[in-house]
Amino acid sequence: MDDEETRGDGTDQCGPVVIFAPLPVLTVTVEERSGAADIHVHAGGQGVWQSRMMSSLGVPVVLCSALGGETGDVLGHLLPIRDVTVRSVPVSARNGSYVHDRRSGEREVVAEAAGTPLDRHELDSLYELTLTEGLTHGRVLLSGPQEDDVVPADLYRRLSTDLGANGCEVAADLSGARLEAVLAGKPSLIKVSHEELLDDGRAKSEDAKDLVAAMRSMRDDGAGTVVVSRAGAAPALALLDDGDVVEICMPTLEPADSAGAGDSMTAGIVSALALGHPLRRALQVGAACGALNVVRHGLGTGGARAVETLAQRVELIDWK
C-alpha cells in the first residue's frame, strides 16, 4: 500500500504525540490465503495499535514502553515504523505474546503468554522516561497494558497529575482502577467503552441516560471531554467542554474484525486535536477511524484518505 493512501497529505503539521504503552505484546495471527495458512507477526497492545493509526494520519508518535525477555527483543525490531519513534526501558520482566487463528473468520486463541510485572526500579525508569518525553512534547495519551497486574494504577495517577500540573495535555483510554487513578490529574480527554462503565459500576445500565449520568460523574471527578463508545449500531456519546452531550452517528459498514475499533477511535480524536482541529471535527475523525478499523483485518490500521471520506459522513446529533 503506497504512502499516499496510508498517510496524511502533509498540509497539516504538528509535533509528536507521546503514547504511554507500558508493556507491548508480540502478536502472531494466522489468516487464510488461497487455502493456505498466512502467518502475520506484529507488535501489538493498545498503545501500539493507537500509534499505528496516528502514524497513518500523518501524526508523529513517541512511544514509551518497557521491553524485556525474548519477546521484548523481537518487539524492539518490530515497533519502529514510519513516524513512530520508540523510547524504551530495558527490563527483566517479559513482554506478553499471543497466537490467534482467524482462518474460520473468528479469533480463536491458540496460545497466550502473559507479560510479567515490572519491579520498582523499572517502574521508576518508565515513569521518568514518559514524564520527560511528555513535558518535551506537550501532549500525552495514556494507554493500558494487556494484563492488569504488570503496572500499578498509581503510576497512572502520578503521570496524569505531574504531566497535567506542568501544562501537558493528557488524554487517556483506560478503565477500572487505572481510570479512577488518572482522573486525579484532570485529563483533558477520557475515552471509555460502555461495557467498561458497566463493569466499573459507574453506569447502572447501557441506557443512554445512565451512560450520560456516568459521564457527568467523571466530569465531576476531573475529566474534561468524555467519549463513550458503544457496541453494535448504537451511536457513541460525547460530553463536550460546554456540558452539551452529542451522539456520534457513524457510517454503517460490514465488519471484518471488530477488535480495536475503540482504540482507533481514540487515536483519531487525539490526532485531529494535535493537528489543531476543533473538538467536534476531532470526534468525526475518531468515529471514522473506528468505523474503518472494523472493515480491516489489521488492528489500528486505515488510510488517511478513507478516514477523511468517512468523517464527512459522521453526524453529531444533540442528545436530548
Describe this structure in words.
- With 320 residues, the chain is α/β, with parallel strands linked by helices.
- The chain has helices at residues 3-6, 46-56, 69-78, 120-137, 153-165, 176-182, 194-200, 208-220, 261-274, 279-293, 304-311, and strands at 17-20, 25-33, 36-44, 61-67, 84-90, 97-101, 108-113, 139-143, 169-173, 189-193, 225-229, 236-239, 245-249, 315-318.
- 38% of the residues lie in helices and 25% in strands.
- β12 (236-239) and β13 form a beta hairpin.
- α10 (279-293) crosses α11.
- 47% of the residues are buried.
Features:
11 helices, alpha/beta, 320 residues, single chain, disordered N terminus, 4-stranded mixed beta sheet, UDP-N-acetylmuramoyl-L-alanine:D-glutamate ligase
